Amino acid sequence: MTAQTKKRGTVENGDGGIVVSLASFVANNEDVGPIVRHAFESGKPEALLSSLRNIVKKKEVEIEEICRIHYEEFILAVDELRRVLVDADELKGTLDGENLLLQEVASALLLKLDELLELYSVNKNVGEALAMLKICLRVTSLCRICNRDIAQAKFHSAMKTLAVIEKDYLQNIPLKLLKKVLQKQIPMIKLYIEKRVCSEFNEWLVYIRRIAKEVGQAAISQASLSRQKDKEMRDRQREAEECSRAGFDEHAYALDLEHLDEETILEFDLAPLYRAHNIHILLGLGEKFREYYYNNRLMQLNSDMQISTSQPFVESYQPFLAQVAGFFIVEDRVLRTADGILSESQVESMWETANSKITVILEEQFSQMNAANHHLLVKDYVSLLGAAMKKYGYQPTPLVEVLDKSRDKYLELLLSDCRKQIHDVFSKDSYEQMVIKKENEYQMNVTAFQLELAEVVPVLPYVAPFSSSVPGACRIVCSFIEDSVNYLSYGGCMNFYELVKSYLDKFLIEVLNDSFLNLIHGGSLEFSQMVQIAGNIDILEQSCDMFLQHTAELCGVPRRLLEKPHSGLTARAMLKTSGNAAYNASISLVNSRIDEFMMLLTSINWTMEEAPEHANDYMNEVIIYLHAVVSSGQHILPRDALYKVVSGALSHISDSIVTVLLSDRVKRFNANAVAGIDIDLKMLEGFADDTFRSTGLADLRETSFKDCLLEIRQLVNLLLSNQPESFANPVIKEKNYGSLDPKKVAIICDKYKDAPDSLFGSLSNRSTMQNARKKSLDVLKRRLKDFS
Predict the structure, then answer these.
(1) Beta-ladder partners of 442
(2) What is the pLDDT of residue 641?
(3) CA–CA gap between residue 450 and residue 543 (Å, rounded)
(4) Predicted local confidence at residue 749, as pLDDT
(5) What is the pLDDT of residue 767?
(6) Per the database record, which ranges form the Exocyst complex component EXOC6/Sec15 N-terminal domain (predicted)?
(7) Which residues contact 472 (CB under 8 A, 6 or more apart)?
(8) What are phi and psi for residue 753, nearest 5 degrees?
(9) 516 pLDDT band (50/70/90 cuts)?
(10) Could you tell me which residues come within 8 angstroms of residue 754 by beta carbon, excluding any fewer than 6 positions away?
(11) Span 576-612, pLDDT tens digits
């Protein structure tokens, strides 16, 4: 096959595909656009046109066939229409006959209809006249009702009546004269009602300002009562907790119906305000009235903020704060019940204004106060004001802050007042043991402060181990704690136990302890008084636990928290230190008094010719004084402290005798003088042994009072020894003279002479034993010189 033949076959095949596709698309009512586009793109539009002509011819044949089939049915329909037309003509003739008959009958009825229409016109005119008459009667009736309501001061009802007249009748009144009168009188009536309502409202403003103080006082009293109930409830809860720790108490939890009283209802009349507001709304002056109300109340508030200058603030603060409280209670009621008169922002603005002014006033007044109790009274009332206001939705934060700022000032004033009270109590105390003769005195001065562990009242009269200043000081400390708790309660600090504890520490250290130190170092007390002060300090130091427990109870802190480590008071250590200072001062007083007696030691005859048979006078005085010291201190001082006082006194006596022998006041002394000292010493040692046993110290201590005299005893034994040179023997010295200082022994031995011309007098007048003692002493002196 040639290339040309192949090309012709391809064209023929392409034309056949277009014809088939076009026939298929037309048969299926599909879009032939793609085939047309393809034919033109392939350059064969003739084939397409030829196909379309063939399709048209086929369709024409089909149309002719359809018309031929339906022609007979069309002929039948035309025949049917001709038959219907004949029936219609017959019906038209019948209707014409009926119409003629109807017109003949209706002629008589038309005459009757004209008469009826005329009657309807008369009836309409009479109805319109009656309607006009009813309107006028209704309007005059409403006017009469309005006049009656105005006469009875029922302005709201009168305004409603006027509104009905204006809305429903005024524009429809048929009588022009009546309408003109009403148009003139209604504005005048409204003006009259407005003046009357404003007058009543102004009177209400005066009334509400007067009653506000009573309202505020009632609210603050209610807050105080609620606070008291809360305190009692906490106390009962704390008691129940304590009982539960010891064992369940069936009576610990009980419903106390006495405390279920309903709150006092604060009643005051707001009806004039409501009426005035509603009337002004009806008059279309609601916004003007609200502005008028706000401005007047704001002026009243500013006037209430002016404190009285004719009397002290401490006398005027209650009515001043009660007035403010009542003002805002009224405003709260107005805000909640008188819809739209006040907005929350306006009330909040007034409250902020009042807060700022009260804050300035309180800061100024607190800075000028010089009495802690005045400070506390004002603070308590301000906190009650804050509690009362918080109940009504006002936030008292600025008031709480100004109270917290004045806390340090209050503490200074309270410390100053308590310092004066402590000074008065101490100045009135004779510092003698307190004698209690009545049971109520015991309860008031001992049991109330747990100064005795025994729960049973002892046999009266009871001699207390403390003086009258101890219960007085305890009373002041408890008062300080209570005042501190009262000030810090219901303030900004919720957990104020640690703060009160620090205040208590500060008071005990800076006031109580310093007062004791001033007494101790004042230099005007006797030993018995100093001993009593030491005993008082010891008892108050032990009472610190009671003070801390009392603080915890007032602050609502469980007792178990006090048992934790480091939960005590720093002041306890300070008081213990002051107690030791008192003990040392007691020792100094005893030693000072003993020094006065020991001054007599220098006046005795140190070179007497015969040995004395009795103790020297100074020793008798010393023994009497020591007995008095033990007697006064035995029932007050702890046994350790008593031991320190007595042992210190005996050691001081021993040192004083040695000091006298070493001093220039004793140029020389002989064996007879030493024998006298020996008698004094034996008397003193007897006192030491008796006292050591009678005070019960023998069961506690191994070192007796007699050991305090060891130095002077060994010195006397050495001077009276037949072999004084044995002092140079280390073994014997350690055993018999271990407390002696060789240098002191050397000085004293130089003064130990038996006669003016020689150490032991004339050898012709002395026995062999005295000669041996002399030689032994000479040997000792030489050895001591060599040692030095």
Answers:
(1) none
(2) 83
(3) 8
(4) 86
(5) 52
(6) 52-220
(7) 425, 429
(8) -130, 145
(9) very high
(10) 670, 671, 760, 761, 766, 770, 774
(11) 999 889 888 888 888 898 888 888 887 888 888 888 8
Query: How far, in Å, CA of 695 to CA of 640, rounded?
Result: 11
Radius of gyration of the chain (CA): 62
- CA atoms within 13 Å, Cβ hemisphere of 654: 24
The Cα-based distances of 568 to 551, 558, 571 in angstroms read: 12, 15, 9
Residue 351's Cβ-count burial label (10 Å; 0-12, 13-18, 19+) is: buried
Q: Is 167 exposed, middle or buried (0-12, 13-18, 19+ CB in 10 A)?
A: exposed
Segment 740-750, tens digit of pLDDT: 888 888 888 88
b/e sequence 426-440, b meaning 16+ C-beta within 10 Å: beebebebbebeeee
* DSSP structural state of residue 673: H
Residue type, 94: T
d(CA 683, CA 351): 87
Contact indicator for 745, 707 with CB cutoff of 8 Å: no
In this predicted structure, the answer to whether residue 255 has a pLDDT above a threshold of 70 is: no
pTM of the predicted model, to two decimals? 0.68
pLDDT at 251: 46
Rounded-to-integer distance, Cα 177 and Cα 781, Å: 155
pLDDT of residue 762: 42
d(C-alpha 402, C-alpha 364), whole Å:
11
Nearest residue to 751 (alpha-carbon basis) of 783, 709, 781, 710: 781
Over residues 526-552, mean pLDDT: 89
Q: Which residues contact 481 (CB under 8 A, 6 or more apart)?
A: 500, 504, 547, 550, 551, 554
DSSP state of 722: S
Is residue 589 a contact partner of residue 561, using CB atoms and an 8 Å limit? no
Q: What is the DSSP letter of 525?
A: -
- Residues 1-14 have a mean pLDDT of 38
C-alpha triplet 560, 562, 568: angle, nearest 5°: 165
Token output for 147: 């006049």
Asked if 696 and 718 touch (Cβ cutoff 8 Å), the reply is: no
Q: How far is the CA of 574 from the CAs of 20, 132, 427, 640, 730, in angstroms? A: 125, 106, 22, 19, 47
Taking the C-alpha atoms of residue 302 and residue 300, their distance in angstroms, rounded to an integer, is 5
User: Using CA atoms, how far apart are residues 58 and 461, in angstroms rounded to an integer?
Assistant: 151
N-term to C-term CA, the chain: 163
Contact predicate 161/149, CB 8 Å:
yes
Distance from C-alpha of 259 to C-alpha of 238, rounded to nearest angstrom:
18
pLDDT at 480: 92
Q: 10 Å Cβ neighbour count for 399?
A: 25
What is the rounded average pLDDT for all residues in the chain? 82
Give 3-state DSSP helix, strand, coil % of the chain, rounded to 5.
80, 0, 20
Q: Which one, of 215, 240, 221, 348, lies nearest residue 294 by Cα?
A: 348
From start to end of 23-136, where are the E strands? none
Distance CA 16, CA 51 (A): 10
The predicted pLDDT at position 4 comes to 36
Res. 421 pLDDT band, cuts 50 70 90: very high
Lowest mean per-residue pLDDT among 433-447, 469-483, 626-640 = 626-640
Give the whole-angstrom CA distance, residue 386 versus residue 398: 10
Please tell me the predicted confidence (pLDDT) of residue 788: 57
The total of other beta-carbon atoms located within 10 Å of residue 740's CB is 20
Kindly report each contact of residues 560-566 with a partner whose C-beta sits within 8 Å and lies 24 or more positions away, as own/partner: 560/245
Predicted pLDDT of residue 566:
57
What stretch of H or E contains 480? helix 469-488
Amino acid (1-letter code) at residue 384: L
Q: What whole-number percentage of the chain has pLDDT above 90? A: 15
**669 beta partners:** 752
The region of weakest confidence among 448-452, 559-563, 616-620, 650-654 is 559-563
Structure confidence at residue 261 as a pLDDT band (50, 70, 90)? very low
SS3 state at 664: coil
